[in-house]
Design brief:
Elements: E1 2-8, H1 26-34, E2 39-42, H2 47-56, E3 63-65, E4 70-74, H3 77-83, E5 93-97, H4 102-116, E6 120-122, H5 128-135, H6 139-146, E7 152-156, H7 160-170, E8 175-179, E9 184-188, H8 192-206, E10 211-218, H9 224-227, E11 232-235, E12 250-253, H10 258-280
Parallel strand pairs: 1-2, 1-10, 2-3, 10-11, 11-12
Antiparallel strand pairs: 3-4, 4-5, 6-7, 7-9, 8-9
Helix pairs in contact: 1-10, 5-6
């Protein structure tokens, strides 16, 4: 038996880069729900933001938050996977964290900034209004974006040489700097790929004998580790001009960005899988 797992980035992929809409992807989203295919959201967004978005998307599956710093999943989710049942929509969410807490991270980052006079500002420095202005989010959504657990988005205001030094200064503290769609992100030595591998392993443990076919969709450099951990990587055009080139994995490239390209990609993949299934009968 084959089970599809879909991992997807959000901003610029499932969500429009400018207005965060997923309307254009609704046909494929409805098909995914009808077939009860796990759609696992994987984002730089916070747990607070993803809790809201999961409800909007009617998702009952895990999600990867803050670029892999943590995974949220319904409390009894994997027991239900083992038994073949679905999670209720209002089930309590549990979290699995890969790194240390946000307060410790901010202490280190701000000490390095003061010591070496790096020029950058992060969400810890921003007011809610400033987060809203920098992201295009409304005030309520900006507050959720500031409610962080394990990573810090920053706006780099220094030169590239200083950026390289800052990246090196973070490493002894087991922290890294990755480029996202709008910001650089400081987080522990984890990434979306590690979180994806953790989830795939759990699915396989809960469903021995099941043949999992894994798909990931993304548009940014921070998606690359995720794209390289699955059977099929789908790369959408980046609004920021990032050149995303997965290696060691079958790759599909879309011409259209955001939810329009996302919807077309899912349609094409499902049609291909259906054709392969018919040929193998």
């Amino acid at each position: 038996m084959q089970q599809i797992l879909i991992f997807t980035d959000l901003d610029g992929t499932l969500l429009d880069h400018h207005d965060y809409s997923f309307t254009a992807a609704q046909p494929s989203l409805e098909q995914i729900r009808r077939q009860d295919i796990p759609l696992i959201l994987s984002s730089s967004k916070t747990a607070a933001e993803l809790r809201v978005l999961r409800r909007r998307l009617e998702s009952r599956h895990p999600c990867i938050v803050e670029n892999g710093a943590a995974i949220l999943f319904p409390e009894n989710y994997f027991k239900r996977v083992s038994s073949g049942s679905s999670s209720p929509p209002d089930e309590k969410l549990s979290a699995y964290f890969f790194g240390s807490g946000y307060a410790d991270l901010i202490d280190i980052v701000h000490q390095l900034r003061a010591k070496h006079r790096y020029r950058f500002t992060g969400f810890a420095d921003f007011s809610v209004a400033e987060v809203a202005e920098a992201t295009g989010l409304d005030q309520d959504s900006a507050l959720l974006a500031k409610t962080r657990d394990g990573s810090e988005p920053i706006r780099w205001e220094d030169n590239l040489e200083a950026l390289d030094r800052f990246r090196r200064d973070l490493a002894p503290h087991q922290l890294q700097l990755i480029k996202g769609g709008r910001f650089y992100h400081i987080l522990p030595m984890v990434d979306k790929g590690e979180a994806v591998s953790w989830l795939i392993s759990r699915y396989r443990q809960c469903s021995p004998g099941t043949d999992f076919f894994t798909i990931a969709l993304g548009d940014g450099l921070n998606d690359l580790p995720m794209l390289e951990k699955v059977d099929l990587a789908v790369v959408l055009p980046s609004a920021c001009g990032d050149l995303v080139e997965p290696t060691g994995v079958r790759t599909m490239r879309m011409n259209e960005p955001g939810p329009i390209g996302w919807n077309r990609a899912i349609n094409e993949v499902f049609n291909e899988l259906q054709t392969e299934g018919e040929e193998n009968e």
